[in-house]
Every structure is written in structure tokens, then in C-alpha cells.
Amino acid sequence: MDRRLTNWAGNTVFRAGHVHHPATVEELRGIVAAAPRVRALGSGHSFNDIADSPGGALVSLAALDPVADPDAATMTVRVAAGVRYGELGRRLHAMGYALRNLGSLPHISVAGSCATGTHGSGDGNGGLATSVSALEIVTADGDLRTLDRAGYGDRFDGAVVALGTLGIVTHLTLEVVPAFYVRQHVYEALPLEALDDHFTDITSAGYSVSMFTGWRGPAIDQVWVKRRTDSPGDATPGPGDLGARPADGPRHPVPGMSPHSCTAQLGVPGPWFERLPHFRPDFTPSSGEELQSEYLVAREHAVAAVHELDAVRDRIAPVVQISEIRTIAADRLWLSPSHGRDTVGFHFTWVKDPDAVRPVMELVEERLRPFGARPHWGKLFTTPPERIDALYDRLPDFRALAADLDPHGKFATPFTARHLRIAP
């Protein structure tokens, strides 16, 4: 390779033979056509080897023109695959537009986030990929194809969250809405028992709500409530009505860390792209000294799942920096962790000690298995292939789609072989 290349956390060293940085789509097409194996390299915020192509090539799309051309008639915007949400948000807001939701990090690329089923939070908000209405993709022979729902029908639902197995996405068309503003409040020390009868009250207290806990006691350490300024007042009990206290200053989700990198709190209104993420785009949220896992269960099991994890908090707490609980609306994308069900995500930011984390991660998976927990594709997990098969009823259709677009497995990897049974 050009140099020793790792993911953001440094826990994965890419084994591809070369990294390409095409400046144009035509250059990219030539690279893909000539390569025996190739994968797109996004912002590197995955924690496993999903993006690697051992012995093949990696392609960074960061040099492509990060176009953002809104269409007021269709309320869509066409963007380059490698653009990051922080940059895109600023451009869209300046033109009077917004995306419906954002993830907690604005530093991640649009294509990589959508391809892995990454999400933000909110009872009514789907994952980031649900905004995609069309894809431009370079297929294995170097052809440039446009996939959209009108021309691709049901198979479009299989092409959006595709883990990079169908080709190299060059551009995405995203649905947009009029720009809006958000206020963010943080509440502390919510008794865990409040979730038993008021889970929906808490998660519906804002447009986007996140609960943070270190599993060090029967409490939710922080609740971050993000409310649109154009929404009516709350009619249901929120965290402040259920035993939590308003924070008296800015907070970082991880106890003891400076809130300087976090988005503004204390109810100060700001543009959607500066409030929906937890972290500011002009600051790196941490040094990468962490590992991450996330498991997504049907919303109906949320409270039971919380109690299952709380029962083993003495095992979780020593190796977790913070855990986040969020809700995501159901979608119909075949490999989305929210496919077919309203979902609750249990995210774990672990200490950077794989040997200490792995047995606890396995324990978390064991406790969540009865609830049909689906692991986040871009994070660490040990869920076996047969379990993955049972969790995704459209997986056979996805394999057929991959065989159609990539019959020789140019975009397949050891990761897809292990988890999807799609081999190079």
C-alpha cells in the first residue's frame, strides 16, 4: 500500500494493495474496470474490516467535487458520495434546505453512512439511508448506472444499504425539507424505573432524543432532548417531569470529558446541522481511543432489553466509556437494522482493550438475543452467520441482487463472506 492505513480508531489495519484517489468519475471507472478486487474507502469511522479489500484496491472519493445541487421542484439534492454531513449541512442550510436527520457525528461520509445503515435518533426519523431516492454507481465492469425507485422497483430497497457489495457509489440523491432550527436541553440522573411506564414519553419529548448511561447504577446519566423551534409545546411528561434535573451547564456524553467539542446546549437555538449531531463539525470528538458496538431491537422490547442489560451492569461498566439508547423509525430497506420494525438502538463506546471488551460484548449479545438484536454493520460484533440469516428475511434477495450486479465478486470481501455468505 501507499502507507500503513488504518480506520479512525486504529483497531483495523487495511490490507488492500493500493489506495487510489480519482479526481473524476471517468478516472474512477477506469480504476474499477481494471482492478480484480476493489472497495470504496469512506471516512474510516467503521470499527471492523467492512471496507477492506485484502490484496485488492481501495478507492477514496474525497477528491471528487462535493457537489450539492438542490432541486426545489422535487425537494432533493444530488451530492458526491464522499462529502461529509457537516460540510453538506452547512451548504444546504445556506440555501434554505435541511436533511430530516443526522447522526451523532457530522464527520462521517454520506455514502458510507447510508451503506452501513447508520442512523440518528427520533421516534419519527428513519435511518440516514431512508433519505436516498437515487444512486449513481460504478459497477464491476466500469459502467456508470443510475438506480432509483422508478426504474429499479423493489430492488432499490436492496441497493441503498448494501455494505459496498454492489459497486462504488459516486453520487446520491437525497430528499430534503425546508431548513429548520433546534434547541437542545440536557437532563441528568433520570431514574431507570422511569422508563418502565414512560419510555415513549421520554423518547417523544423532542424531535430527537438520546439517553446516555455508563451502567454504573439504576439511572440514565443524561438525556439529550433536541426540539425543533417550530414545534408546539410538549403535552406529555418529559425527563424533567420524571425525576431528572436540568443540567446547569454544557455536558459531554462521557463523564469527565470537556463539552467544548459538543453542540450547543442550554436551549440556545441553532440551525439543524449544528444541533442534531452531538458533536461540532469543526472539532474531532475524541482521539479514536475507543471501540464501538451497537445492537438494534424492536421498539416493543426496549424496556425489557434495558433491564436485561442493567442486570449485568457490573460486567459492562468496567469496560464501557458510555452507552447511548436511541429510537429509529421502521423502514423497508432490506439490510437496514430497522427493516420492518420501529427500533431502539443500544450503542456501546468501549475502552480500547479488545481482550477485555470481547467477552462483555458477547455477554451483551447473549442478553439481547431473545429480542432479535441486529448488530450495526459498521461496528464490532460476534453474531454468527446463521443468526444474521435469521434476522434479515430479504437476505436471499440481496444475495441475488449482488450476483446480478457483481457476478464475479469484485466487491466481495472476507467481511461479506463471513456475514452475508457473499465471497470474493
UniProtKB/TrEMBL annotation:
The keyword Glycoprotein does not apply. It holds the Pfam family ALO. It comes from the Bacteria. InterPro entries: ALO_C, FAD-bd_PCMH, FAD-bd_PCMH-like_sf, FAD-bd_PCMH_sub1, FAD-bd_PCMH_sub2, FAD_lactone_oxidase-like, Oxid_FAD_bind_N, Vanillyl_alc_oxidase_C-sub2. Residues 12-179 form the FAD-binding PCMH-type domain. Keywords: Oxidoreductase. Residues 228-252 are annotated as: Disordered. This is FAD-binding protein. It comes from Nocardiopsis sediminis. SUPFAM superfamilies: FAD-binding/transporter-associated domain-like. PANTHER family: D-ARABINONO-1,4-LACTONE OXIDASE, L-GULONOLACTONE OXIDASE.
